[in-house]
Amino acid sequence: MPEESIKVAVRVRPFNQREKDRSAKLIIKMQGKSTFIIDPKAPQDEPKQFSFDYSYWSHDGFVELPSGILEADNSLSPYASQQRVFDDLGRDVLKNAFDGFNCSLFAYGQTGSGKSYSMIGYGVNHGIVPIICDELFREMQNKKDKSTRYEVSFSMLEIYNEQVRDLLTKEFPKGGLSVRQHPTSGYFYPQGLRILPVGSYNDIELRISEGTENRTIAATNMNATSSRAHTVVTIYFDQIIKMDRSETKKTSVINLVDLAGSERVSNTGATGDRLKESTNINKSLSALGNVISALADISLGTKRKIVIPYRESVLTKLLQNALGGNSKTVMIAALSPADVNYDETLSTLRFADRVKRIKNTVVVNENPIEKLIRELKEENERLKLLIDTGKYNLQLDILPGMTNQHIELMRKNMEEEILSQIQANQQVLQNSKTSWDLKLKNARLDEKRALNQFDKKVPYLANLNEDPMLSYVILHYFTTDEITIGSRNSTICFNGLNILERHAIIRSIDSHKYELIAAEPGSKIKVNGYNLNGSTQLRHKDRILFGANHVYVYLNPLNEQESSPDLPSIITWEFAQKEIAKAKGYSLGNNLTIEQEEIQEKILSLLPLLSEVNAISEELNKYRVFEIVLMPISSWEGIAIKGSKAMIKMRNLLNQNIWFWDEEKFINRSFIIKEHYQKFLDGEEEILYIAKDDDPFWEPIEDTLLGTATAFLQSLAYSLDFADEICIVDYKGLEQGRLSINLCPCLPSGKVLSDEQFVEQPEDLLNKPYSFKITIRFIEINDERHNKGLRIRYKVFNESEFTETNIICRNTVCANVKQIRIITIPSVDQDWLGFFLDGCIIFQIFAVQEEGKPNTGLFQMTTRDLKKMEQKQDNTNFMPISHANSSLPGDSKLKSELTLLQRKFYRLEQKEKRIQQLCQEWTNNHDYNKFYKLISAIAFSSGTKLKATSTVILSGYQLTRNISGANKENPVDVYLFGNEEQEYIKDIEQPNADRQKHWDEYYRKTALKQRRSSITSRIGMNQQSTINLMSLTSNSRGTFTLTTDGSNQNGQQNYNDHSSIFFLNANSTSNQKKTYEEPKNDNIEQLNENNLPMTNSKTTSKHNGTKSTPKTETFTNEKNSTVCTIQ
């Protein structure tokens, strides 16, 4: 018997519109039979090369003919049309079928790569399946003679989640069709699959339409995802040849397989999910990969014994004959050309490369009919004897260590297989007694031609599906004045999530208009993305969502002009989902970055799943609610990474505990949840009482990310310390509390460096040892619900492990942390310096959660009741809550930069004043050499801080104390430059009491001058500003309100003749109000800069929505911080 390798072809599609909008880069090249793929992350590297039987270039170089058919735009174009693909692959399939060989053709590739286009086609560009069917009947007509007659039968099935569905019937048995193994041949087959006779290509078209409609209905009712299903169309082609005294039957089985999207195998592994192995959704393609690998190893001539794992999945059982069996097989691998799909496309090419090594042993299926009938009868007698004598026990593959229960189960399964085969053989024998013409006549009587029963000029509903091939398949025509929609006893019956018995009513207003009415108050209906309350008049192209997943578009051929001109010509599933997302508050745009586009796609793909899972939670009363959140990657990972990721937040309605799941984990869980729900619908009520570990809605208690506090490190690059209360911000950008931290340069021992270690240029730190200290001093959170405990963790630079605190804040919302960590760098390099200048430390704050017992009253409420109660509470809170200490996330960085600039400013200001002094001296003494020497010394000097004795410092600012008496002003820094600097350094090295007095007196005079000049300039600026600012009025809580239209809270005008103003000390511990007169010149030094009006950068906005209300500013002093709230 000859061996023949599987024939493999690859085909690359054009860019889709989304890829064009992104300006995607092409990563596929083809030359002859070779295909090259370019790594977009390393375009300079040598492209990876693969060789196949055919490499089809369908990316560009084509033109659309007036008929709509796509053809090459010139004779030199490499474009591969649908007809060319059929000529290369399909004609061989037909030839082999007429020769009596079994044939298989299957398409492989990720979702959206063009599998369905190659297999089925689109519009007038028919794919290989319909062309094969059409050409089969053409060839039969051409070869028709008296000695040969042809019989063609058709079946169509779908494999979804390891269940087999017969698509030529609307009845779906519990658990799907059973897959049995033939006890003689060893091949598998679906028991009870309908195999219907067809007499023409039109019959096949009708059967495919029927199967597609049933597939769509099942996918909607059972919450199935079409991209996860495998579709198998099988054509049974028999040639009965009359001999002199007998008839010979030549049989060919043609399997045409459209496999599910291959990308799901790798991307839905749900790393870390305890239930990752509990779902069957990926089992088929994973098992297929294992079978391909095993067959490829066998073809390479390996000496080790290899067991081919056909039994691992339903798909591989049914494809056993096509892979490694008696079949001539062709595979089309569909490739995505865009750089964003590089990993998936490379995986597809590697899979195809393994498949081409497989060799099948093929034989012609030709036997006399009398022999076939005789063998069937003999086989039935033999099988009955096995049952009667029990000798089938000898065929059991009993392994050492098997329990009696396991052996008994194997015996029972074997007996069922034998009985099933006896029944199948009996059916074949019975069919052989019925003429082919009678079979065909009966099959045609059963055909459904629902599409031809109605006038297309009446309004109707057309379904929308994520798979474009399944959209506009189900059509509900309006043939009466009132159409009822519900789960039973309705004009249109829908099954599935959130569909009530009486769900909706569509009623005629006049001959051309209809209105949609919610039949029950709890009916879940969305029209154009928004919830339907009451009724609405339907307009052409309105999008309607019934329940959780029945999406339809209303089409009215009698009144098409009433639709909005902004709507697309064809309404798609994606358009409807974007509309729902926008109505939920998601901002979806067109001019997006690649990252934003990817997040948008994820949100649109997750929203339908989310709706279904929330609906199942209600149906099964699981007290869980799910929502999509956009989590900054830096917050989740704890390191500075740009971008966001879509995550799912699961919340327990009983105790408000929350969990965050990544996309992969949620998708994995959603399919397990839908499996459980299907079992519940099938009557398995025990699914409601499964153990917690097996429940996909249950998750062990874990600490939840409350928020992050970001500390920027720029001050460390200049050897300056930084201390502040940093805002703890959650993923929404809302403040959840404050974290007090301190970053300061230090010695390896931990001793803090003095200000003299300040460096002008960060590059001065390079190649030197450097130590700094991180101190977490204090934490306070806003929500008392998180008082069960907190923990803080962070990473520094390129650390792989987190530094973490112990559990703090038990039974309280604030606590002193006092965690100190010293980090020593042996030698600062450019990476560390860059980290100081542009990096940050992200402190992650986790809240401890407990499995607390909820209020017993909540258990008496259902999940639906609790959600309604929360919704009512949310509707009463339209105004955002104002937090007393709310701030912007960038406060920490701004303060760090401000501190640094203030230090630089002090030095430069004093340097400028010293230069001005020298210039004044120059006017009296024109000694150019001395002047040039002094100026040069100052210009190139970074300055040295003058250290005065503590007595002088205290006396220097006794007169400039804060008038409120709460705090003392910080001493003035005085810097020396040029010759004075050198002179001071010498005096420090050789201590002398007289010289110290000299420098103390110098410090006192210089400090006093700086205060006078600084306060004078600030007061001058403030006088002008206070003419425009009117008055500050305080309430009993210490909140000061400023009205910018010149009125106070009572609406009275206040104009202050002497420019008096209220000052609020930023460091005051109590909320006080003082009025100061403008000082006289000789008492200017009595004021200090902390008495000036000041606002903190921590700002929040709130709109009260009141008309004709003056714009107000509120200054609040609370817990050593000043907050400005603009209303």
Automatic annotation (TrEMBL):
PROSITE patterns named among the record's database cross-references: KINESIN_MOTOR_1, KINESIN_MOTOR_2
Residue ranges of the region described as Disordered: 1086-1127
Protein origin, superkingdom: Eukaryota
Matches recorded under SUPFAM superfamilies: P-loop containing nucleoside triphosphate hydrolases, SMAD/FHA domain
GO biological process terms held by the UniProt record: microtubule-based movement
Gene3D superfamilies assigned to the protein according to its UniProt record, in alphabetical order: 2.60.200.20, Kinesin motor domain (3.40.850.10)
Name this polypeptide is given: Kinesin-like protein 6
Residue intervals of the Kinesin motor domain: 5-358
Membrane-topology annotation of the record: Peripheral membrane protein
Regions of compositional bias (Polar residues) in chain numbering: 1086-1099, 1106-1127
Organism for this UniProt entry: Rotaria sordida
Keyword Glycosyltransferase: no
Family named by the database record: Belongs to the TRAFAC class myosin-kinesin ATPase superfamily. Kinesin family.
PANTHER family: STAR-RELATED LIPID TRANSFER PROTEIN 9
Described function: Microtubule-dependent motor protein required for mitochondrion morphology and transport of mitochondria in neuronal cells.
Keyword NAD carried by entry: no
Keywords in alphabetical order: ATP-binding, Coiled coil, Membrane, Mitochondrion, Motor protein, Nucleotide-binding, Transport
GO MF terms, alphabetically ordered: ATP binding; microtubule binding; microtubule motor activity
Compartments it resides in: Mitochondrion membrane
Gene Ontology cellular-component terms listed: mitochondrial membrane
Sequence positions that bind ATP: G109, Q110, T111, G112, S113, G114, K115, S116
InterPro entries: FHA_dom (IPR000253), Kinesin_motor_CS (IPR019821), Kinesin_motor_dom (IPR001752), Kinesin_motor_dom_sf (IPR036961), P-loop_NTPase (IPR027417), SMAD_FHA_dom_sf (IPR008984)
